[in-house]
Amino acid sequence: MKAVTISLFGFLLVIAAAIISFCDGNSKVLCIGSEGQALLTFKQDLIDRSNRLSSWVEGEDCCEWHGVFCSSLTGHVKELHLGLLSTSPDVYAPAAEWDAYFRSKLGGKINPSLVDLKHLSFLDLSNNEFGGLAIPEFIGSMKSLTYLNLSWANFLGAIPHNLGNLSKLHYLDLGLNSLFEAKTLQWVSGLSSLQYLGLSLANLSKATDWLQATHNLPSLVELHLSGCSLNNGPSPISVNYTSLAVLDLSQNMLSSVTWIFNLRSLVSIDRSSSGVEGMIPSGFQNMSFLKFLDLSWNSFSSSSTLNWLSDLNQLQFLSLNSVGLQGNFSSAIGNLSSLTHLDFSNNQLEIEPKYLESLCNMREMDLSNNTINHEVSEIIESLSRCSLDRLESLNIAFNKLSGHLPNQLGQFKTLAYLYLNRNSISGPIPFSIGELSSLKVLDISYNRLNATLPQILGQLGNLEHLDVSNNMLEGNISETHFSNLTILRSFWASNNMLTFIPNPSWIPPFHCEGIGLGNWRLGRQFPQWLQFQRNMYSLDISHAGISGVIPTWFWNLSTSFEYLNLSHNQLVGEFSYLPISWIADLSSNLFTGPLPQAIFSDLGDLFLSKNFFSGSLFNFLCNSSNNLKVLNILHVESNLLSGEIPDCWENMPMLEVLNLGNNSLTGKIPRSLGSMRLIESLSLRNNNLFGEVPSILQHLVNMLVLDLSENQLTGSIPAWIGDKLSNLVILNLRSNNFQDYIPDQICALNSLHVLDLGYNNISGAIPKCFSNLSAMATNLNPHVANWFSRFYPDNSFYFGALLVMKGRVDEYSTTLGLVTGIDLSVNSLTGEIPKELGYLMGLLSLNLSGNLLTGKIPETIGNMEMLESLDLSMNRLHGEIPSSFSNLNFLNHFNLSYNNLTGQIPSSTQLQSFDKSSYIGNHLCGPPVTKNCNKKGEAPDGTNGGSSGGKKTSEVNWLYVSIVLGFVMGFWGVVAPLFLIRSWRFAYYKKLEQIGDKLYVFWATIGM
């Protein structure tokens, strides 16, 4: 017996040795030939643009191929890992990096040869691009599969129900595709071994049995049904997922899922974006194992309580982002010592800093966009009590933080992401910030930080993105500030008062893709150090004092800039080509020559205004080589462009803003402008356009701003403006030759804020229906300004307008939406001022001067308490100044001169603060005019409101007579013809303008 035992033991030793020898590679098992051939057949139908499968070569061992894993005992292919494992680029990445990512995705077709892999248990094709193919039916016959992942691969169509035959499946993920028309989920009931089921974004709106079908899976641990259009439907009497730990029902409009609270074993719940309203349910307090809870993007009542949170002492992840909460919930999170991720962003919450002291495991905290009104030092100091070695991300942007950044900030050694932007933090940037050795992103923009950038920032070797823009930083920046920033990818610092003029031979250690140095002082020479940057996608060096020609190497920094802002410098030269794919701002420079003849076909916004571009618009707009189909904004005002406006605007169907103002364009307004149905702002002001306004413009129903002022347009004011352009906010037809009366249809413009018809030949009465201009009838809501505040990276505005307000011409942009005014001055309007004008309570400026208006000033004008400017001068008004004018407390421009007004100027009002010239040419008395009133409150006969009231004299002062005669002769000989003959006037001022332009170019060229 002993001998038998020894022999058996020896035999086992031999077997063991053989196995060890086999496993250590001395006796390697090769790929099965038929399976290798099946894989090569599978590869033939794939599109592999990045050559990921280059190792799949016939004759080579397929077990060594990329993504292929074989059994070490039999050589059969067991696993196929072809999912794209690399994560997508971050939001800062340029287009080239995103393109490389998408190129790495496999595409094409899935060949049925996979069926020949009889022992395949693991198949991952996730995160690829299969172009809308249906999920192959044959996958349902691969009975050995235990793992199947087809998520995020752009499959389209119905889910094959024969996937229910894969009874060995433990893991099934078909999510993030475009799967639809699933009328039932009963096919999953046969997957008795399933532990993970992912069907996110599959359309299950008709699958009313989803709850019953998934409830019957005894081994199910994770269920992901995000964005599946689920409905409540009939549910079983008792829901009891015996093994379920993770439940994702986000992005579904399920009004009631109270059965969740019976699943006490749940570890993770995601109910974000589910349209849940009312009070936050308190049933979560009994789920003691809960570690992950996401209720974000719902609409809970602001009076909801979070007291139940204190019972979830194992909670690690909590998100209540954008749920409408208000008030102070600090105490609710004070006991959550296990919490590692907290997101309370986009609410109206206040936080007491002391309750943050116990969150010792915190790694990521997002409290952005709330109403936190504390000193930033209080929050930093509270977090420093016990989370110094764990906190990785802190976001408190868009709050009301104040005070200075404390030195304790430098103690957070693991902090990688810090967002404190859009607050009111002041003081210097602490020197200790240079100790944040793990920092990757630092955003402290839009605060009140002063002093200068500390040089220690240059030691942050892991820093990738730095944003200090829109502060009050000042001083000189040196090369030391960037000494160790070798992986810096973006640097935004515009709108400070910093100076950076490095040594001409300086080579920066970084290769940034985005740089913003607007409003810096960069020296007169174009920054030479920029030539060492590569693959730039965004650059702002506007308002930088740079002059001269743009060097040729500059255009090689990028195959195409996405955003380029060189505006407000003294750059010279010509352009034939603009390699910019999104926004180009070259305005306010000294560029000359014709407009660029070639631009990128995907250019969206182009700003070339306030330069010296000349010639015709035709080659730029109508040249077939310029594809302008996606152009959204075009600003070329204030140049030297001439000729007619081309009639090819149908080439720009996406144009929303067009400004051709202040050039020398002639001819009629082209009819093809009416084809731009998306246009919102059109300015052709200050050109030499003539003829009538074409009626085809009535199709531009999205128009907000229409400015045709300072041209030679004739005819009547089109009635269709009021009938069709109902969204108009600004209508400016000033300084033309429009005739006839003001059409009543204008009164239908309920959104109108500014109406300027001044300096025309309009006659008739002022329409009483102006009282229907409702946007002028109420105090303005500041949010109206949002119509005109379309930001791009340097915070300039797309909308703007030149308006005559308070007696002068000003450009309005940021406040354009807050301006209201009516200007009908210098026409031939007759009749009385309608009392109905007084109903426009929100009006800020009213100018009716230089007309033939008669009658008394309506008492209702005094009800326009918001008025800042009122001009009724040079009419034929009579009677007294209404006593109601004492209500006009905001007036700062006021003129009643040259009428026939009588009586006493109302006393003890703001009217006494204006110069007597505001009343000259009337019969008024009392301050500020020098003539006192008699006992009846009237001016003595024969006196003028502007006279001195001194003793009359019969002596003739011949010096004064000669002055008067000289004035009369000079006026009628020179000035009057210019005033009365329009063509002379335009020729005279255009000649002056040309002389001024030539002098400006001359002095700019010689460097003055």
UniProtKB/TrEMBL annotation:
InterPro entries for this protein: Leu-rich_rpt (IPR001611), Leu-rich_rpt_typical-subtyp (IPR003591), LRR_dom_sf (IPR032675), LRR_N_plant-typ (IPR013210), RLP23-like (IPR046956)
Q: Name the SMART domains on file.
A: LRR_SD22, LRR_TYP
Classification via SUPFAM superfamilies = L domain-like, RNI-like
**Which locations, inside or outside the cell, does it occupy?**
Cell membrane
Nucleus is among the record's keywords: no
What is the protein's membrane topology class? Answer: Single-pass type I membrane protein
Q: Where are the transmembrane segments?
A: 958-981
Where's it mainly located? membrane
Could you tell me the superkingdom of the organism this chain comes from?
Answer: Eukaryota
The entry's family comment says:
Belongs to the RLP family.
Task: Quote the protein name from its UniProt record.
Answer: Receptor-like protein 12
Q: Which organism is it from?
A: Durio zibethinus
